[in-house]
């Protein structure tokens, strides 16, 4: 990869030089945003541990349909569509996500008609400041005045029309060099949010105010004082700013973040349809939220008060508050049955979940884990995850069903020396050409058609036909048909871990 060392003349500070290094890796560059359009920057790097056991690192909450029929990522992306009341439009979205989720993110966006987008891969999680810095560096290469609308992929905005009416005020303040957020009237003394003290109105941006003070996640007594003051708003986590403003403020208040990310951007590579940030440089960035890194310190913060029915969906109790309730105040999702229950949230993901006689409870069941908690203690779910991680339980990170770019697999039985899985391959897709050092496999097709490569031979299998793959053989599974291929895999061997896969060739450029 050749690194182009040109600097953009509009950014003069020496410490920002790396932020405008462009990379030339032979890939077709993304088209710059049309002048005047807003670039949605969707941050999809969170893991949502407080919504365990549904949300886990392998499939976090933004990739689930929790508050509507669409996933939270899809709802966030669709929020940035159409035209604002003042005629301003939106450029294609830039999504920053965990590299392990790249195919799911691409598929979910395509499923709602969003094919024109740019997906940037974080090699490791470094919180929102680094993700925003990457987006600003990339967009500044084409236009330092590019206007970024930064949104977490895992929040709910029920009144999108109201948000669109407020965006022009945020845009005007951002054009004047401000870092603008949307402030939500406090519904209580939440300690998990940042609080914004309203300052003077901004004459150059009617509807926007200067921020007198920004306080991130205060103690309970301070939060209660703020909530009752009438002068404080919750920080929604949505920010609007130009790329120039972001780079300037990051350079002043978080130079270590900017330097590491700028280097990672300069050394990026194109991987299929994705922009992969250079891992070693990106890992050097301190893990800081944009709030801690910049918003608490900048003298250019502004806020637009916003009544938009916003929620960060930070707990199961929040989902209960958002959900449609029955006559007894219960919210039921999935395969759930409630008898004599009141004010409960019950969710059955792939398993019947019955609740009798409980009040103010959350019960969530998945095929491999069950959570039961009082709604008042919903924030403590992350302590469950912490303890699972401390004992290296796989349930802390992954589900029984694991998604792959070709489809998914799920473990049905796991015992010493053998494992049974269900594997589903989407039409036209294939697994990598691979072999194993410690296990043999038996495949039985239960739906669709399978083309199996086994060493030098190719075998076509139909429903109710099977094949044996001895230890060490080179093999691949292909779905040549037009319906999903489903098969049962029986693994037998001394070691059955997923890391016993030696990939010899892969259509999805995985290692």
TrEMBL record:
One Pfam entry name: NTP_transferase
The organism's place on the tree of life at top rank: Bacteria
Ranges of residues in domain Mannose-6-phosphate isomerase type II C-terminal: 393-506
Catalysed reactions, as listed in the record: alpha-D-mannose 1-phosphate + GTP + H(+) = GDP-alpha-D-mannose + diphosphate
Listed SUPFAM superfamilies: Nucleotide-diphospho-sugar transferases (SSF53448), RmlC-like cupins (SSF51182)
Domain MannoseP isomerase/GMP-like beta-helix, first and last residues per copy: 336-388
Residues of the Nucleotidyl transferase domain: 40-326
EC identifiers of the protein: 2.7.7.13
InterPro entries: Man1P_GuaTrfase/Man6P_Isoase (IPR006375), Man6P_isomerase-2_C (IPR001538), ManC/GMP-like_b-helix (IPR054566), Mannose-6P_isomerase_type2 (IPR051161), NTP_transferase_dom (IPR005835), Nucleotide-diphossugar_trans (IPR029044), RmlC-like_jellyroll (IPR014710), RmlC_Cupin_sf (IPR011051)
UniProt keyword list: GTP-binding, Isomerase, Nucleotide-binding, Nucleotidyltransferase, Transferase
Major enzyme class: transferase
GO molecular function: mannose-1-phosphate guanylyltransferase (GTP) activity; mannose-6-phosphate isomerase activity
Similarity comment: Belongs to the mannose-6-phosphate isomerase type 2 family.
Protein's recorded name: mannose-1-phosphate guanylyltransferase
The organism of origin for this protein: Paeniroseomonas aquatica
């Amino acid at each position: 990869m050749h690194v182009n060392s040109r600097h953009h003349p509009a950014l003069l500070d020496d410490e920002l030089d790396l932020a405008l290094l462009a990379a030339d890796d032979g890939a077709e560059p993304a088209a710059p945003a049309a002048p005047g359009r807003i670039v949605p920057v969707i941050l999809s790097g969170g893991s949502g541990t407080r919504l365990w056991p549904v949300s886990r690192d392998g499939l976090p909450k933004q990739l689930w349909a929790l508050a509507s029929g669409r996933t939270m990522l899809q709802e966030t992306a669709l929020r940035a569509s159409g035209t604002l009341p003042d005629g301003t439009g939106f450029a294609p979205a830039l999504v920053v996500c965990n590299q392990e989720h790249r195919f799911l993110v691409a598929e979910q966006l395509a499923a709602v008609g969003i094919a024109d987008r740019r997906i940037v891969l974080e090699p490791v999680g470094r919180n929102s400041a680094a993700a925003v810095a990457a987006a600003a560096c990339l967009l500044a290469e084409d236009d330092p005045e590019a206007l970024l609308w930064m949104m977490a992929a895992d929040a709910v905005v029920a009144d999108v029309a109201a948000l669109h009416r407020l965006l022009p005020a945020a845009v005007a303040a951002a054009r004047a060099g401000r870092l603008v957020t949307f402030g939500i009237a406090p519904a209580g003394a939440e300690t998990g949010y940042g609080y914004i003290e309203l300052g003077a109105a901004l004459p150059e941006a009617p509807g926007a105010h200067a921020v007198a003070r920004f306080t991130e996640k205060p103690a309970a007594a301070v939060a209660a004082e703020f909530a009752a003051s009438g002068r404080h708003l919750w920080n929604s986590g949505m920010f609007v700013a130009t790329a120039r403003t972001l780079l300037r403020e990051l350079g002043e208040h978080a130079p270590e973040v900017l330097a590491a990310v700028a280097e990672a951007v300069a050394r990026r590579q194109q991987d299929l349809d994705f922009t992969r940030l250079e891992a070693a440089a990106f890992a050097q960035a301190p893990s800081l939220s944009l709030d801690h890194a910049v918003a608490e310190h900048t003298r250019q913060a502004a806020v637009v008060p916003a009544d938009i029915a916003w929620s960060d969906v930070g707990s199961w109790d929040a989902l209960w508050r958002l959900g449609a309730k029955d006559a007894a105040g219960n919210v039921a999702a999935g395969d759930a049955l409630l008898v004599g229950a009141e004010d409960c949230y019950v969710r059955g993901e792939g398993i019947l979940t019955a609740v009798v006689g409980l009040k103010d409870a959350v019960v969530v069941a998945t095929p491999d884990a069950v959570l039961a908690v009082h709604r008042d203690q919903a924030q403590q779910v992350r302590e469950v995850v912490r303890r699972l991680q401390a004992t290296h339980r796989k349930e802390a990170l992954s589900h029984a069903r694991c998604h792959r770019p070709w489809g998914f697999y799920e473990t049905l039985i796991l015992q010493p020396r053998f494992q049974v899985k269900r594997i589903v391959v989407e039409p036209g897709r294939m697994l990598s050409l691979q072999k194993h050092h410690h296990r043999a496999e038996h495949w039985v097709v239960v739906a669709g058609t399978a083309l199996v490569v086994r060493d030098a031979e190719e075998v076509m299998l139909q429903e109710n036909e099977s094949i044996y793959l001895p230890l060490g053989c080179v093999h691949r599974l292909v779905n040549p048909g037009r319906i999903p291929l489903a098969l049962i895999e029986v693994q037998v061997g001394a070691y059955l871990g997923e890391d016993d896969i030696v990939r010899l060739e892969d259509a999805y450029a995985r290692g």
